[in-house]
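Need fresh eyes. Consider my entry:
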Amino acid sequence: MLVTRAKPINIIAFAVIISIGLILTLPAIAYGIFGAHDILVHLNWYKYFSEQLWDGELYPRWLLGMNSGLGSPTFFYYAPIPYYFTSLFYFFKFGEVSIWSQLVFSVALALIASGFTAYLWLKDLTNHKTALISAVIYMTLPYHWAIDIYYRFAFTEYWTFVWMPLILYFSRKIIKGSRLAVPGFAVSYALLVMTHLPTTLMFSAFPIFYIAFMTSKRQRLIVFTKMIIAVLLGVGLAAIYLLPAMTMQEYASLKEIATRPFFYYENNFLLEFNRLLDRSRNFVVFRVYLSILLVLMAGVFYCAFQIARKSIKKAVRRESTYWLIVAIASSFMTIPLSTPAWKLLPLLQKVQFAWRFHVVLTVATTALIATAIYSVNQIGRRFPKKTSTMGGLLLITTLFSGFIITYINIGIPNFQVEQEFLLRVDAPEYRPAWVSKEVFEQYVISQVWKDSPKAEVTTGQGSLSIQQWLPRKILLQTNATTDVELTLKQFYYPGWTARIDGTNQLPLTPSQPEGLVRLKVPRGQHQVRVTLEAGVEERLGQVISAVCVVLVLLLISGFCQVNRSVGS
């Protein structure tokens, strides 16, 4: 009977989650490109990433078309997973700006997938019906969809809402001793790392604390050992991205972010009333709304806890206590009182925006809502009607506020989008270290590319022809009566190597102040191959990830063999 009844509930859950995901992303589908903070940057990144991926480059790190064709090391540093998923829609081309339709499909996919992973996690925590209701609430909490899609278009942060519930699901499975828990956690954690590092920094401690809080002293050592193995495996799986991103930062301008007040955590606290309405600061409406949202969320999670703590099940009460602590901690990290904690944890300052802890708050509040709903049927006469009514009204107000904030931004005219694609200038933090700030301005970059060929003879007598111009691979043919110096319209970056006639290596340097690739070629006819070769960091990351993939497959294989032997 239980199995028979469970199947239609699962089908209904899938249908509801898909429907909610499509409804919430319908404005993006119908309205077109809107004025969210980072939307044009992600359009450019996705355009060149997907083009290079479908041209056969398995991991496009160097974006050939960025910066008006001068190239950019964006994906040496930026997390690639959301762009891989988005590239699945590469051939879905609708509307005046076809790239946008592909990005919208990815947005819908991520929202629906987050509903499924939340449902999977919460079903293990409560039951089918509670999990479905709570998963829908998770999808519709304003920071998840209204802020991260329609106001900020924080594309990669938005995708982390898919992986966090999955990590928590496998955390519970580790406690229960499931054989698939360790590889499942490792893969989920690797996906989080390769999606958004700031969220990884904020969230990573909470699954570990969860295990410490929810396990008995007797089983804590074995469970912690499994968790450590799972985390290390996850980091190892992500090494293909993480190792170059962490060790090659001196080659770009990432440190300049720390010098810009906008990205400093102390300038991004909420409930800072003396500065909140300061019109000289950016995004006043945004900061005011996030402060209001913080208060609403606090009311919701407090009411949810007051209901859940009356549950007759000790495990539910303990679960709700843990998530109350997480909700309070994440709320605290968004306000000025948390300044000592930020100073004590300098690595956490790389999160940049203190209000980003709304991400963790969204997860914690969802868990508290789930435990509250699950507890309602158990409480009986002790059911707190006033608290439930207040919590329900606060939740409705919170969800409704998301719909209001969604329609604040206006659309971006198509000519502005086309101009952005024409200039294709990258974010300033990805400016190669050899390129001056003055050169990296939009106007200058567009002029450098506009009136000059991709490669030219700058000194000496001779000519050249371009035989191949691909990402990280350029093939030239030179014919010179004297030694010549060539300048390529690609920004210099460590790893660029030039070889003549397939053998001898040529000296290669950055031009000043443009930071373009420059090399000297001897007289005569020569074939010159210029490639951006993988360095030690890239290759070591690939090896570590490959080893960890094998280890994960061995763990899964061992689980399957045990299952077969038990079944026989």
Q: What stands out?
A: Residues 442-534 form a domain with the Chondroitinase Ac; Chain A, domain 3 fold (CATH 2.60.220).
